[in-house]
Write a structure and sequence with these properties.
The complex is a heterodimer.
Chain A lengths: L1 H10 L2 H19 L4 H9 L8 H26 L10 H46 L5 H17 L5 H14 L3 E2 L6 E2 L5 H4 L4 H19 L19 H6 L1 H16 L4 H16 L11 H25 L5 H12 L6 H6 L1 H32 L4 H18 L5 H18 L5 H23 L6 H4 L1 H29 L2
Helix pairs in contact in A: 1-16, 2-3, 2-4, 2-16, 3-4, 3-9, 3-14, 3-17, 4-5, 4-13, 4-14, 4-16, 5-11, 5-13, 5-16, 6-7, 6-19, 6-21, 7-19, 9-17, 9-18, 9-19, 11-12, 11-13, 12-13, 17-18
Chain B lengths: L1 H22 L18 H23 L10 H21 L1 H15 L5 H22 L14
Classes of the chains: A mainly alpha, B mainly alpha.
């Protein structure tokens, strides 16, 4: 309770309220704009983090993070194009509902489902994050090394597309962290005699290039005409109370699926949405209406994708291990503000953690309000010319790359990463594992070497640590499970 | 197209990994270690070995794949947009933020296919100047400056 009042004291300022509101408006708008997505929305706002207080920047970025997922549902419902990949399943029932002249009701269901999913995962986050952070004190270098290995394995394994490419992208990210001075010996690595590389690469310019600039270039490759999308039947109508209570089970199930999947590194809201949608299509008493404008379909998609936000923040805030591009940016913002996630955040800055919970609560409430009053306005913004939008993203991306260190080289790093990113997209390489590898690489190598020094070079010591061993076994299961399952189904098939 | 890009990129990644792996055997990495430490070459060698194995697998996978339907890609637009973005980024390091982004935003949106010159002129002046003023006077963070003026 002491932390609660301390957090209120610290966060109840006009600057913080203005930042949450700005974050929620930008998040919803960016989510609604097809192609922007959560990571690009966060990256565009990144330059502003440098001129803001800790509380205000947390409010801004958590506001964007929470609402950008919801924003994607607006374009999914109105123009049959999900604003974010997380809202892809919203199209299945949202658009048919809109075509039947009930777009306002569809937005009502999506907004309500997003609110329920967001609040459900917030409750889990409040309960789990501090407890997990306290447990993490028992984690020695070996256990942290194993934990990061597990996270990277999961991320690469569930990467969209190809597992081999996902793993390789993760390796590239890890290798990029070895450019520059070695933390233990101070010797420069892979600087090729260039003074510009002697200090190493900063994560933010690479992140900006790989996500925001590569998205800009990718859209340029597929942009042919300037016709704005046709938008009709816009508005907001809350479903009848009886209809809502009838679907309590669906709300609970989708929220739980989203929260759980969010906790797993690398899985993300897109996977959660499709798992939740297929589960509800299997178990709902109204399953025959799925795909024809059934509210259960909207609940499945929207409650689960918003529930992922709280779930994904659990390992990010409790252990400092981000699960996707969005949480990498959030982790970057915390680092810029000098906050170390994990035990330090829970024990030394509990009011900041409590403040973050309050911000997420307010962001969810504001998101609901914005959906109720702003749906018509967001629909108009969706008609903004794409080249202008992309021009603004380019401008803010270049500023963001520069202000991190005030280093002009970082602007060029971002552009090069952007070109590399678009090539990776064309060749089917996932991008998220590169930045997650980069975000975790320094700690990964550091803990490995610290562990070996304390074990006097004995690798087996890693296996003698029970926590590390359990996590390594888990990582091995994650790698082996699909292979075992494939072989098992082959055996079953061959036996007829 | 995707198959060709895949083969090219995977091969380039394989060559890059092999080259970086060779670098780890140069004098730069020949550093004495102490007290059980594996030294600064251990982790990069591990990453690069796995990277090489995966890149080789990826090349083989790409070679085995069938060619898909050709994608309709606006290659000219992609190249021109990337070139303008690169030139704007480079110019920013030489002539500063304002002098590079005002023409940069104009050319970028034009290369992207936007054809309303008056609107574009207003936008490409207003957006960079607003951002410059916001960072210089509100956040008090200096953006890249030109060699000719103190703040711009």
């Amino acid at each position: 309770m002491v932390h609660f009042f301390a957090a209120i004291d610290q966060f109840a300022t006009a600057e913080v309220f203005a930042s949450i509101l700005a974050g929620c408006i930008w998040g919803t708008v960016a989510g609604a704009l097809p192609g922007m997505g959560t990571v690009s929305a966060l990256i565009v706002a990144l330059p502003f983090a440098f001129g803001m207080s800790t509380e205000a920047s947390m409010a801004l970025f958590l506001g964007i993070y929470v609402t950008s997922v919801y924003g994607g549902s607006i374009s999914a419902i109105l123009i049959n194009t999900p604003g974010t990949p997380q809202s892809a399943a919203t199209v299945f029932d949202g658009y048919p509902m809109a075509r039947a002249g009930k777009a306002d009701l569809a937005i009502g269901w999506a907004t309500l489902s997003s609110l329920v999913g967001g609040l459900f995962s917030l409750v889990v986050l409040i309960a789990a994050a501090p407890a997990l952070a306290r447990v993490s004190v028992a984690f020695g270098p070996a256990a942290i090394f194993a934990l990061i290995l597990f996270a990277l394995t999961c991320i690469a394994w569930v990467s969209t597309g190809n597992t081999v490419k996902g793993l390789m992208a993760g390796m590239i990210g890890l290798w990029l962290t070895t450019i520059g001075p070695d933390d233990l010996t101070g010797y420069a690595r892979f600087d090729f005699g260039l003074p510009a590389l002697a200090g190493g690469l900063s994560l933010v310019p690479v992140l900006i290039g790989l996500f925001a600039l590569s998205e800009v270039f990718h859209r340029a490759a597929f942009y042919f005409d300037a016709k704005p999308p046709e938008v009709t039947n816009v508005g907001f109508r809350l479903p009848p109370f009886a209809e809502i209570t009838l679907r309590t089970r669906q709300f609970a199930k989708s929220s739980a699926i989203g929260t759980f999947i969010g906790i797993l590194p690398g899985t993300g809201a897109t996977a959660a949405t499709f798992i939740s949608y297929s589960e509800l299509r299997r178990s709902s008493p109204r399953r025959e209406n799925f795909g024809k404008g059934e509210p259960d379909g909207l609940i499945a998609s929207e409650a689960s994708n918003n529930a992922v936000t709280g779930g994904a923040l659990i390992p990010t805030l409790a252990l400092g291990i981000p699960g996707d591009g969005g949480t990498v940016v959030l982790l970057g913002v915390l680092t810029i503000q000098g906050i170390v996630p994990g035990f330090d955040l829970v024990n030394n800055n509990p009011q900041i953690l409590t403040g973050a919970f309050l911000v997420i609560l307010f962001a969810n409430i504001i998101m609901f309000g914005l959906g109720a009053v702003g749906a018509r306005l967001f629909a108009r913004i969706m008609a903004m010319p794409e080249p202008v939008l992309m021009g603004m993203i380019l401008l803010l991306s270049l500023v963001g790359a520069f202000v991190v260190r005030g280093n002009s080289l970082d602007i060029l790093v971002a552009v090069v990463a952007g070109i590399a990113g678009v090539l990776m997209r064309f060749a089917g390489y996932p991008i998220a594992p590169v930045v997650i590898g980069m975000a975790l690489g320094t700690t990964f190598e550091g803990k490995l070497r610290q562990g070996l020094i304390s074990a006097r070079g004995d690798f087996w010591d890693f296996i003698r640590d029970p926590i590390a061993l359990s996590i390594l076994v888990l990582a091995a299961i994650v790698v082996a499970l699909p292979v075992i399952r494939r072989n098992w189904s082959r055996t079953v098939k061959s036996r007829g | 197209m995707r198959r060709k890009v895949d083969i090219t990129l995977s091969t380039l990644l394989l060559i890059a990994a092999a080259s970086f792996f060779a670098v780890t055997f140069t004098d730069q990495f020949d550093v004495p270690t102490f007290g059980g430490d594996v030294g600064p070459a251990f982790a990069p060698r591990g990453y690069l070995l796995v990277w090489m194995a995966l890149a080789a697998t990826s090349v083989l996978q790409a070679l085995r794949e069938r060619d898909e339907e050709p994608l309709e890609v606006n290659l000219r637009q992609l190249v021109s947009v990337a070139a303008v973005a690169g030139a704007t980024g480079y110019a920013m390091t030489v002539v500063g933020f304002v002098f590079s982004t005002v023409p940069g935003v104009f050319l970028f949106c034009w290369a992207f296919g936007y054809r309303k010159p008056i609107m574009l002129a207003v936008l490409s002046l207003a957006a960079p100047l607003t951002i410059w003023a916001l960072f210089t006077y509100v956040f008090e963070l200096l953006l890249p400056r030109s060699p000719w003026f103190h703040l711009i």
